Amino acid sequence: MPYADFAQEYRKNSVNGASPVQLVIMLYDGAVRFMEAGKAAMLNGELDKQNFNLQRAQKIVMELMASLDMQRGGEIAKNLLGLYSFVLEQLVSANMEDRPQGVDFAIKTLSELRESWAKIEEASRTPKVEEIEHAA
């Protein structure tokens, strides 16, 4: 199996076996990767690559926005929507105006959110005291 096929199969299996929190983290990782690539292209004057990568990041952010459950999510969902809207606005204006600072703001915001989700994921994997006591 060629490496590219192997890598694609691995990614597909990673997504299929991921928890909802892990999927959100993967989306953040992908968006940040595209933002970094878009910023690098911007700094090198590669407008096509800049636009391609920043639009990919925008699509991921829009997917994150669309996945929010505003009914059940309450205040957290509202806050996330506001943050995602800010990130999207920064990406669009940075792309249109060739402004790397906007990409930096977006990267910082999503990176901080990613860290929060990673802590949630870690906490969900750590056995609770009650679970340890019942296992003994």
The proportion of residues in beta strands is under 5%
How many structural domains are formed by the residues? 1
Give the overall shape.
globular
Number of strand elements: 0
Round the mean pLDDT to the nearest integer and report it. Answer: 88
Largest sheet: none
H-E order: HHHHHH
CATH fold name: Four Helix Bundle (Hemerythrin (Met), subunit A)
Class based on secondary structure composition and strand pairing = mainly alpha
Helix content: over 70%
Structure overview:
The structure is a single chain. This protein is an all-alpha fold and 136 residues long. It has one domain (20-135): Flagellar protein FliS (Four Helix Bundle (Hemerythrin (Met), subunit A), Up-down Bundle). The chain is 88% helix and 0% strand. It has helices at 3-16, 20-43, 47-66, 70-97, 100-125, 129-135. Helix 4 (70-97) runs antiparallel to helix 5 (100-125). The longest helix is centred in the middle third of the chain and has 28 residues, at 70-97. The protein is globular, with a radius of gyration of 18 Å. The model has no long low-confidence stretch (mean pLDDT 88).
